[in-house]
Amino acid sequence: MSPEQADPPALEAAFPAELGPDVRAVTALLSPSRSGPCWEVHRGVRIPVRLYHGEPHADAVAALTARQRLVLHCLFSVHHDGYVRQRHAAHVAGAAEPWAVPFVVRLTEALVPGSEARRVYGRFAGEHPEFLSVTERRAVSYWNEYQRWRFPQFAAHPAAAVLELLRAAAVEATGRAWPRQTRVPRGAR
Question: What contacts 24+ positions apart, CB below 8 Å, involve 10-14?
Fold first, then answer.
């Protein structure tokens, strides 16, 4: 993705036009920003890379609709403060709305080698191997039931890539191997 060169667009540009009223309801709650968001654009997908607004008060967030809260979580999942990003990313990670996908994809960048987020994820994975094992088994079960026709090998499924990133982060953080819940195809080790 390349940085946006012109003046930054309104935050509505990160969402489909039909979400305009929802995005405006969310942005009305945002405090003034000390600087505009940084943007990335790739073949028509616009997504803010960093957001500098303060978080709205919890009562105001509670008054939003479920869709508006997801919009808010998407926006704050790219906040400049890593703690704020982490709180909101938890709400975005499982989102199935097509317009939330770019924000979910951005979350995978948290697992880039050497990043602070990768260390945090790695520590979590190392401290909670049973949770990650259950998650991996569920991902395999979902793949087997609904996606095997598209991805004959689990290793080709998008969830497998994320699980591999988590596994690598856990190994880096703990120095111990994370047990596999799936078979590795021959020659893939």
Answer: 11/37, 11/48, 11/75, 13/39, 13/46, 14/46, 14/47, 14/48, 14/74, 14/75, 14/102
State pLDDT tens for residues 53-70.
999 999 999 999 999 999
128 DSSP assignment? -
All structural domains of the chain with their residue ranges: 2-96, 116-174
Give the residues of the chain that fall short of pLDDT 70. Answer: 1-9, 34-38, 40-44, 94, 109-110, 181-189
* pTM attached to this predicted model: 0.60
Identity of the amino acid at 98: P
- List b or e across 139-175, with b for residues whose CB sees 16 or more CB atoms inside 10 angstroms: bbeebeeebeeeeeebeebebbebbebbbbbbebbee
